[in-house]
Automatic annotation (TrEMBL), chain A:
Keywords: Membrane, Transmembrane, Transmembrane helix. One of its GO terms (cellular component) is TIM23 mitochondrial import inner membrane translocase complex. The lineage of its organism: Eukaryota, Metazoa, Ecdysozoa, Arthropoda, Hexapoda. It comes from Drosophila virilis (Fruit fly). It is found in: Membrane. InterPro entries: Tim23-like (IPR045238). The chain crosses the membrane at residues 177-197. Residues 23-35 have a biased composition (Low complexity). Residues 1-36 are annotated as: Disordered. This is Mitochondrial import inner membrane translocase subunit Tim23. GO terms for molecular function: protein transmembrane transporter activity. Its main location: membrane. It is a multi-pass membrane protein. The gene is Dvir\GJ13156. One of its GO terms (biological process) is protein import into mitochondrial matrix.
TrEMBL record, chain B:
GO terms for cellular component: TIM23 mitochondrial import inner membrane translocase complex. This is Uncharacterized protein. Essential component of the TIM23 complex, a complex that mediates the translocation of transit peptide-containing proteins across the mitochondrial inner membrane. It is found in: Mitochondrion inner membrane. The chain crosses the membrane at residues 112-133. Belongs to the Tim17/Tim22/Tim23 family. The lineage of its organism: Eukaryota, Metazoa, Ecdysozoa, Arthropoda, Hexapoda. Keywords: Membrane, Mitochondrion, Mitochondrion inner membrane, Protein transport, Translocation, Transmembrane, Transmembrane helix, Transport. It is a multi-pass membrane protein.
Amino acid sequence: MSDDYLRKPFSLAPPPTVDEPQPTATTNYTPATSTFSSAPVSPYLNYDSRFLQQAQPEFIFPEGANKQRGRFELAFSQIGTSVMIGGGIGGLAGVYNGIKVTNALNQTGKLRRTQLINHVMKQGSGTANTLGTLAVLYSACGVLLQYVRDQDDNVNTIIAGSATGLLYKSTAGLRKCALGGAIGLGISSLYCLYLLAQESNNTNSSPKFL
Amino acid sequence: MEEYARDPCPYRIVDDCGGAFAMGCIGGGVFQAIKGFRNAPSGLNKRLIGSVAAIKTRSPVIAGNFAIWGGMFSTIDCTLVHIRKKEDPWNSIISGAATGGILAARNGIPAMAGSAIIGGVLLALIEGVGILFTRISADQFKNPSPPTEDPAALGDPVNNFTFGPSNNKHYQ
């Protein structure tokens, strides 16, 4: 079924076929009584097929609910994505460093292979853990803010980003703590600016808050 | 809190990895906080410092191990679903055993076998408990047996009820 019957005005009578240049047999509604003209059709079958919306999915949302997924639904996939990206970047850096070190030390054969694996595992897990911890802190702050403020917007993103930076560097001294907070604030505000720019470009698409 | 449903298969890996990391990070944080508090030298201030230090050093590592376990488990699970074309408890058990084996691959064959057995038994226990709970809760939703129906109550079969004009035709 094509979905252009949704755009036509609805009527129980068969639609006029004069303004349709396209083949009319496939797209136009033909009443069930015309195909089985002589025999009367059961009333359960005798209705306009436009009542059946098959072209687009139908969702029923509870009252007042918005279509977006909340931060809690996105949190796990965000954490997983950052862990995996961290693992990939760390692994690549581990390969690079491992080759450099083993070349410098003239290690070959089995020794070199084991050293390479060691480097990849160590750097990969280190970077993955760092990025994942940052993502956990960010998601926890975001989810908390969403429940406290009871809305999900750019302000949440900025506050959660700054709080993540502050928390992550909270034990390294005041200067570093402030620096971490500033970095988090900067990244999250850049991201929000990007979102706002995208939103003003095409007003139709709803923005997706990370 | 909104309904939390699992994603379809390839995306489930990322989701499970993240969920396991979050679980390990928060759970490991609590665990290491207690452990650091107990192991630190006496004095409340020193104990708090020791607790924070333990959280900082150990909980990301625990979280990373959890994440690797979850991601590997989910990957093998999805691969098995794709190969076997069905989802059943055996998938989880096999992928648990395989995950345990693969992650112990650098410790030698005996360690691999031990880890694989532990992983398989663990996952079999989890699946078994799940099935047990389903069985127990299924008894509560059992329908009462329907009353026996008397076809004579439906009336005369000749003058049956129709919607259209009453010419006794069968419409379908």
